[in-house]
Amino acid sequence: MRKEGDSQVQNTRVQKWKSDDPNDDCSMPEDSFYDSDRPGDAESSGADEQFSLELIPLEQVCSPLLKAYFAESMTGTFENLFVSDIAIRVREAVASLIAANFTSYAPANHTPCGGGFSNAQIYETNFKKISDSDLVIFHRNAPSSGMGMEAEIAAGVMVPAVILIPKGTPCSLMFPGFDLLVIATIEYSDVNDLSRQLRAALNEVVNRARKWRTQRRENLRNLQKAKIGPELQSARILRGITREAMVEFTGMPGEFLRRIELSIGGIETLTTSQLSQLCKAYGVTVALTGDAPLSVYRKELNELPQPVQASLINLARFIQDRELADGGNAPAGRIHDWKILKLWKHYKESYDYGLVGREALDEVRTASDWESLYDSTLM
Questions:
Q1: In the chain, N or C terminus with fewer CB closer than 10 Å?
Q2: 94 and 213: one domain?
Q3: More confident: 253 or 105
């Protein structure tokens, strides 16, 4: 076959396809052919007619589909049949337009108003779906407190957004205040106008959604490099929670949590929703938008007196040193959580209520001090 631009290009057709194999990530748009008509059609001038060949980059052909979440006012449109009908048409038009590049999830199709779902079920489901998405499409068709919560979640986990606004629709003053990563804002007059504008912006939307997905994964790798395990461990000790209890709170295996706390792996494999779940259980906030090393913010620890803060960090350092003594393969039970929590509770209570020997309590307890106390304390 001759290269594109040669004076004679073979009468060649390239068919778009979509694999029937659910495990096959190579997905293409479902249109039958590209720019030219089928051979033999009335408009075709015969076998000698020349056709141009559209070349598609390999990474575009075989890239896995992205995930899109479609947010819209549900309570505000549920009882208004006219607005509800337009919302359905917009939702279906958007899903059709992005189908070649995104799988889409719309709460209106899965947890609709009056569907018998509890508030907790809806929140947990939507939180996970947004966190694991690559794009959130906000249809600001009516004021909505639910959509405001969805915007806050999307901003928190760095999922970019496209905002669709029917012309003349009022908006909550809170919505523009969210620190969303907005790729495009489309004001439309009708569904046809929306389709035209979205089609024109689609390449930019896809490219930037892929870029931010890569960036989120890189941030998780940076988080692993930052070795935040001791900070997570000290946050858990401060809350008085064993690692065994964390297994129940996070739904993650104990050995997996141990590896995260020891900074020897695990964080880089998490999805954004799993990281959010982990942070919630440990009572910390992780900054995902800055440069590495990324930090963990713990309100309770930051409010402690400086000697107590330093002593807690040194306690976590002792645990790290002990469990990593053989390369991180220490047998289970080498460090006993209940013993650690007991030592910390006694120290903290002594500091809070001790009136005698205050000078000694104000001295920072070192990792060696904690090691001596641990080894000399009975269970």
A1: C
A2: yes
A3: 105
